[in-house]
From TrEMBL:
It comes from the Bacteria. Residues 83-147 form the GHMP kinase N-terminal domain. One of its GO terms (molecular function) is kinase activity. This is Mevalonate kinase. Keywords: ATP-binding, Kinase, Nucleotide-binding, Transferase. The keyword Kinase applies. SUPFAM superfamilies: GHMP Kinase, C-terminal domain, Ribosomal protein S5 domain 2-like.
Amino acid sequence: MKGPLFYAKILLFGEYGIIKDSKGLAIPFNAYRGALKTSSNLVDNAKKSNENLQRFYDYLANLETDLVTFNLKKLQKDIVNGMYFDSSIPQGYGVGSSGALVASIYDEYAADKITVLENLTREKLLKLKEVFSLMESFFHGKSSGLDPLNSYLSLPILINSKIDIEPAGIPSQKEGKGAVFLLDSEQIGETEPMVNIFMNKMKSEGFRKMISEEFATTTDICIDNFLQGDVKSLFGNVKNLSKIVLKNFKPMIPVAFHKVWEKGIKTNDYYLKLCGSGGGGYILGFTEDYQKAQQSLKDYKLELVYRF
């Protein structure tokens, strides 16, 4: 067997904010992808993946929910026959490796699944998000369900709030100087510890105030600028967001990148923000001049995501 491809995702804006009901914007990232495959000779990563699928099967078999049912018999049989998730999506990098896996399992084994081809009403999108949240909680302890949703639909998704999500039209890429890029921290980040740090910080009234008055507001403006193609305003607001994140989310930024982050804000060569939960993996960069950013960050691995 060989299943369909599911792509990585990038949450351009909204990390942590979406946990607390502010806006978010996620886009598929086709440079990385994964698919279910079967092999009679499992070694290394394929073997590890197969064992992981068995644990995931146990989790799904014990889910108590009316939202979704799975063809568990077929799933178990396929795992025994050597099924694994063949993926180029780096794990612990904030680009949705578990999301693509969840999407592929839902696509192959969910009974009465909601398909990408039908009219995706808000109710259907929310139901899918809820199902995916339940499924992906196996990997992260707590999941918004957004990564698998993005991977499953392969569409940009605008999150207005927990109960209001919609497919989004993003401006088509131009051959300009500006860019969104990924900066490789070359360390793996784990979602759960980072989310726990955030939840503990949320117990402080000052932090909650900063989230609602500064972080969420600036994130919302950045999303509006991006969707409207207002690049000039976008960079001013992303710079502001970068400052807010550096000041308030230091534990989520690998220590080796605190100075790199500051340098971008000081020189205006680039502005950095978290990609996913942080703690390692990729850091997301925005620049008005990609060549200048490449020069400024010449000691690091960069990957292009989107051109302005």
